[in-house]
Write a structure and sequence with these properties.
single chain; mainly beta; 5-stranded mixed sheet; 4-stranded antiparallel sheet
């Protein structure tokens, strides 16, 4: 009886201790609440009305390589953008195909043989609209444009508005960052991916202003992910090696359109030199937990893109303000220091 009581007490303590904490196992098959794998690659997170929304690329069906490509240009037919919702960042419910591909018109930006990548959604408090920006491209990546869509609801459906080259610049891998004052900024790889640009969006978030800043000049960085900590801006990127992983780096600025200083790899632990065999996608500020962030990355399977997985890890800042992305086989929000 004594051993049984101790065992029951241990179980109760574990349950109480873990209550309210999301638990992550990076790189595992992540299933939604119905048991289906989450299909939201290259994604981003919106927090709205006490709910997290995860938007990402739908990668489904056979992977194929674009004929005549000089690099490993593996593709699946574009499946559009998915939307999942969660209250705790761990248990995700499929909401919708928030932005559908076009299956009939080969001239349409959203046609299935084209590129629909890295969707990011922000809410415009002035207009009451949800705005999605994403990378739009031809299958050989020569189109190099940014697309925008809009919706009245976070789960969509989003209405596609069109695509542009911001201020005439090539635009590929991208993210959107919404600052505390409501201003929004588009980070995008440009100039044949050699240089990153930051462009302030117009007040309705549907177009680009002329405030366009060139940063990380000739450093060939892509997959941007941004956060703000202690009134400084942090940008995490990867090198340009196609689907193959490489070492991350980060840059810091006091002013988002000011000067950015590039630093070394923020990853720590096993396989840190390959960003844990993954590539940056987004940085999630954890709501209700001051200065707590999650580094969100994709572990691409280039010859079977539907089987690509997700790597979410704690992003912490040391006493000197230096960011560290720390490998954990298993971890929980609120328990990492």
């Amino acid at each position: 009886m004594k051993n049984i009581s101790i065992t029951l007490l241990t179980i109760i303590c574990i349950l109480v201790f873990n209550t309210g904490y999301a638990q992550f196992i990076p790189g595992q098959v992540w299933k939604d609440v119905t048991g289906n794998p989450v299909n939201a690659h290259g994604g981003g997170i919106l927090y709205h009305h006490n709910t997290y929304y995860w938007y990402g690329e739908i990668k489904k069906g056979p992977t194929w390589r674009v004929p005549g490509s000089t690099w490993e240009n593996y593709r699946v037919n574009a499946g559009g953008v998915s939307c999942y919702s969660s209250k705790d960042l761990q248990h995700w419910a499929f909401e919708s195909v928030a932005l559908s591909p076009d299956k009939a018109d080969s001239t349409n930006d959203l046609y299935i043989d084209k590129v629909i990548e890295r969707p990011k959604v922000i809410f415009n408090r002035k207009t009451g609209k949800f705005v999605m920006w994403l990378h739009i491209d031809s299958k050989d990546y020569s189109y190099a444009r940014s697309g925008v869509a809009v919706s009245d609801r976070p789960e969509g459906p989003f209405k596609y508005v069109g695509s542009v080259r911001p201020n005439g610049n090539m635009a590929r891998d991208m993210t959107i960052f919404q600052d505390d004052n409501g201003k929004a900024y588009h980070f995008y790889s440009s100039e044949e991916n050699s240089t990153m640009h930051i462009c302030e969006l117009t007040d309705d978030y549907l177009a680009h202003s002329t405030n366009d800043k060139r940063i990380l000049i000739n450093l060939s960085r892509e997959a941007p992910a941004v956060c703000k900590y202690n009134n400084r801006y942090y940008l995490f990127t990867s090198g340009c090696t196609g689907w193959s992983p490489n070492a991350a780096s980060y840059a810091v600025a006091d002013n988002i359109l000011g000067d950015w200083k590039q630093y070394d790899n923020p990853c720590r632990g096993i396989d840190s030199d390959s960003t844990f065999h993954a590539q940056s996608a987004y940085v999630i500020p954890v709501q209700g937990k001051k200065n707590e962030f999650i580094f969100m990355a994709d572990k691409w399977n280039k010859t079977d893109l539907e089987a690509s997985r997700y790597v979410w890890l704690p992003l912490v800042f040391n006493s000197a303000g230096k960011p560290e992305i720390i490998w954990k086989n298993e971890w929980q929000i609120g328990l990492e220091k």
